[in-house]
Amino acid sequence: MFQSVSKFILRALGWKMVGQLPNEKKFIIIIGPHTSNWDFILGMVVRGAMGANVRFLAKHQLFNAPHGWFFRWLGGSPVYRHKDNNLVDQVVAMYESHDEFILGIAPEGTRSEIKRWKSGFYHIACKANVPIEMVGFDFKSKEVRFREPFMPTGDIDVDFPVILDYFRSIDGCHPKTIPHHLPTEK
Predict the structure, then answer these.
(1) pLDDT band at residue 151, thresholds of 50, 70 and 90?
(2) Residue pLDDT, tens place only, 50-108
(3) For residue 104, what are the β-bridge partners?
(4) Which residue from 63, 116, 144, 147 could staple onto 134, CB 3.0 to 4.6 Å apart?
């Protein structure tokens, strides 16, 4: 029933889905461009319409009282963005400990315009040996666009331009420039 209601909401708002999620048990979804709080709401409706159990990471402040329980119930886990906490290894362990695991991440890590995307999702995909599913929320055309899954080669200099190019054709709620620069590795 939730799936039907979610599909109805998408149609009522004039949105359509172009493509679909891969038929895989484990993969990572990168969603972009992340420019508005509406991205999260749309993402939850799309998740419901797809009938997929997609978990997500979000800034830790969302998980404080009084609403933290709600974001955990939705499938969220907090991220402490300004701490060196081996997040990549923690998420890889989640993939290794589950038979099925799908994680959604906004690679910008913020709604603000930035010069470089964060690369954690890429390292997670490489270490967990899972494909990357690129999903674009195009507010101009009201399309949720699913690209064919992309298996990273492990060479970030080769793979990242492919990923960034995909998102350059997608207009976020508040359009911004997709970076032309690779992430700065630590």
Answers:
(1) very high
(2) 999 999 887 788 888 888 898 888 888 887 766 677 888 888 999 999 999 999 998 87
(3) 29, 56
(4) 147
- Three-state helix/strand/coil letters over the chain: CHHHHHHHHHHHCCCEEECCCCCCCEEEEEEECCCCCHHHHHHHHHHHHHCCCEEEEEEHHHHCCCCHHHHHHCCEEEECCCCCCCHHHHHHHHHHHCCCEEEEECCCCCCCCCCECCCHHHHHHHHHCCCEEEEEEECCCCEEEECCCECCCCCHHHHHHHHHHHHHCCCCCCCCCCCCECCCCC
Integer angstrom CA distances of residue 41 from 15, 107, 170: 13, 17, 18
Tokens 């830790």 belong to 60
Look at residues 109, 154, 112 and name the one whose alpha carbon lies nearest to residue 130: 154
Residue 114: count other Cβ atoms within 10 Å of its Cβ. 17
Longest Cα–Cα distance in the chain: 46
- In 3D space, the residue among 163, 168, 128 whose CA is nearest the CA of residue 148 turns out to be 163
CATH number for 2-168: choose from 3.90.1200, 3.40.50, 3.30.9, 3.40.190.
3.40.50
